[in-house]
TrEMBL record:
This protein's record includes keyword Transferase: yes
Entry-linked InterPro entries: Aminotransferase_I/II_large (IPR004839), LL-DAP_aminotransferase (IPR050881), NHTrfase_class1_PyrdxlP-BS (IPR004838), PyrdxlP-dep_Trfase (IPR015424), PyrdxlP-dep_Trfase_major (IPR015421), PyrdxlP-dep_Trfase_small (IPR015422)
Lineage: Bacteria, Pseudomonadati, Bacteroidota, Cytophagia, Cytophagales
Protein's name according to its UniProt entry: Aminotransferase
Source species of the chain: Algoriphagus halophytocola
Cofactors, names only: pyridoxal 5'-phosphate
């Protein structure tokens, strides 16, 4: 054995992969843990979705390898969804590539666009996978701050003060995780202009567009965005299907075909039942979104109460699946996270795992039923 690849030492095990071992150990010891840490929707998908999966599983013909680009019916359902939800027109045969979730897509996109030594603009705070995948492919993350008073606007002035000649891609994510900064059409237009000016590929990671937002937004709805942007989207949060592993990449044909070139060497098409379930989900009507909206609104009100009790502050206009809270003067986020976990058995996420701008914050997930959040409130004296 002559050692592991150098890249292994560039990353840590994913925070939740390690932390949930500890939390699960506490549960095994009988501690009544309330998990407000991870953003994994706890509710079931629609019945039509699970029925589509079950019906497919019973078909003996359904278990073979599937097309690398997904079945045409799935790509059509994605195209119709983009048209209804965002007013974006996509050619199902060329501008859509189904994926096993957007996390997987981050790796495929990075392998497609980046050489060792290239630079990548990454939001701080931001989804940790942007950084770790960037490092795994030998590229260098360049962090940019976002302004929470301005819908999550990157500090373009600060970014442009740096040498951007080696920057190839920029990760953006609105509604932004973990802060809930909603983004806006105006901001996306600014991003497209910025990307064109600096010849940077904009990669918009868009899994939260339907969670507690005023209007679902796609970067591809911005004029000329297709020239410079690709978009990842996912059924994990919007349709309660995180364990199914199904999402999509959308955008210009010539870039999508390069991603397919890479991806088709790494995996095969998704199980047909998952594709059929995804089609059923994407075809759901407005009432599905109205239901999840009201569920998360009620839960969020309770989480705000919990935060109030802990002396934390938050933005009521934020979107997405989390409540992002600033810790009060005189306390650290680690103290709050540890006190809650070890004394009240409430698991929440420290903001520092999303980047240095998250140091004074903690994140609560809305993926717990109301009675559990009420119980958490009652545990705070
Ligand atoms: C910003 C962001 N992008 C991507 C993902 C991954 O989603 P998926 O389940 O589609 O891989 C998450 C999941 O938490 C996320 O918060």
């Amino acid at each position: 054995m002559k050692g592991f690849a150098d890249r292994v030492s560039t990353v840590e095990e994913y925070y939740f992969s390690a932390k949930l071992r500890e939390v699960n150990q506490m549960i095994a010891e009988g501690k009544p843990i309330i998990n407000l840490g991870i953003g994994s929707p706890d509710l079931a998908p629609d019945k039509l979705v699970t029925e589509a999966l079950k019906n497919t599983a019973d078909n003996p013909q359904a278990h073979g390898y599937q097309s690398y680009q997904g079945i045409p019916e799935l790509r059509t359902a994605i195209s119709n969804f983009y048209s209804r939800a965002y007013g974006v027109s996509l050619d199902p045969s060329k501008e859509i590539l189904p994926m096993m979730g957007s996390k997987e897509g981050i790796m495929h996109l990075s392998l497609t666009f980046l050489n060792p030594g290239d630079e990548v603009l990454v939001p701080n705070p931001g989804y940790p996978t942007y950084t770790s995948v960037c490092k795994l492919v030998g590229a260098k993350p360049i962090y940019y701050s976002i302004d929470l008073e301005k819908a999550g606007r990157p500090n373009f002035e600060e970014i442009e003060n740096q040498d951007l000649s080696k920057v190839k891609i920029m990760w953006i994510n609105y509604p932004h995780m973990p802060t809930g900064a909603p983004g806006s059409k105006t901001l996306m237009q600014e991003l497209v202009t910025f990307a064109k000016k600096h010849e940077i590929v904009l990669l918009h990671d868009n899994p939260y567009s339907h969670i507690l937002t005023k209007e679902p937004l796609s970067i591809l709805s911005i004029p000329e965005a297709k020239e410079v942007a690709l978009e990842l989207n996912s059924l994990s949060k919007a349709f309660n299907m995180p364990g199914w592993r199904v999402g999509m990449l959308t955008g210009r044909e010539d870039w999508i075909s390069k991603v397919l070139k890479v991806k088709s060497n790494m995996d095969s098409g998704m199980f047909l039942g998952i594709q059929k379930g995804a089609i059923a989900a994407l075809n759901l009507g407005e009432s599905w979104f109205a239901d999840i909206e009201s569920t998360y609104q009620s839960r969020r009100k309770l989480v705000w109460k919990l935060a109030d009790k802990l002396g934390l502050t938050y933005d009521e206009k934020a979107a997405g699946l989390f409540v992002w809270c600033k810790v009060p003067e005189g306390k650290t986020a680690d103290q709050i996270v540890d006190e809650l976990l070890y004394e009240r058995y409430i698991f929440i996420t420290p903001g520092k795992i999303f980047g240095s701008d998250g140091n004074d914050y903690v994140r609560f997930s809305l993926c717990m039923p109301e009675f559990k959040i009420l119980e958490a409130i009652n545990r705070i004296k």
